[in-house]
Amino acid sequence: MDKNSDSHRRKIETAQSGTARAALLGISDGLVTNVSLILGVAAAGAQQDLVRVAGIASLIAGACSMAVGEYISMRGQVELLQSVLGIEREQLHNNPKGAHEALEKVMMADGVTKNTAHTAALEIGHDPEKAMAVYARGELGINPSELGAAWGSAGSSFVTFSIGAFVPLVPWFVLSGTTGVLVSLGLSVIAALGIGSYLGYMTSGRLLWPALRQLLVLIIAASATFLIGHLFHTSIT
Length: 237
Description:
There is one protein chain. By secondary structure, the protein is mainly α. It has one domain. The chain is 81% helix and 0% strand. The termini are far apart.
């Protein structure tokens, strides 16, 4: 029972973490983006060196773009939530009676009896920060201690995007042509199944469908760019 509870709690914390979300998005985006670009460039007739350079450029540009976007997004979210909490904190401070009534309502909404809620609100009210935390979670649906970390999300996104983007690039340091394409695609398929399985485990506990869904996304994207590269086939030196 305790082990199941701890596992469940870890899953909840992972789901609520902006860093974890950025990591999953980053590695998936890096993998799909770079395998699509690499296969498209290879199908257009590019030589090994050019495919490799294009893949490295895509990795660096994509990782930086993901990190900057994640930082701006998360920072904006944190600042917005902090602003909301600041307004509510000031109102609770300036109106102690209203704050007590608000805490009572929050606890009563969770099924606590009026008398118990009244007593608990008085006790919690002695600690303004604790009172604010209870009110924010119950009334606003905001946990003041889990607003997200902009730098953590940006760093996580940068690293995981780079890892995902590096997977289909690896063969092109030693291989070329059809062999490079097939090995690159094979590694990407394995990585996609792994990412999908992990995501399924962390959410529904099912592995097969999330893994196949991730694979399907990769195949669609890679097939589209490969076809376009093949149609516009040209000799690039």
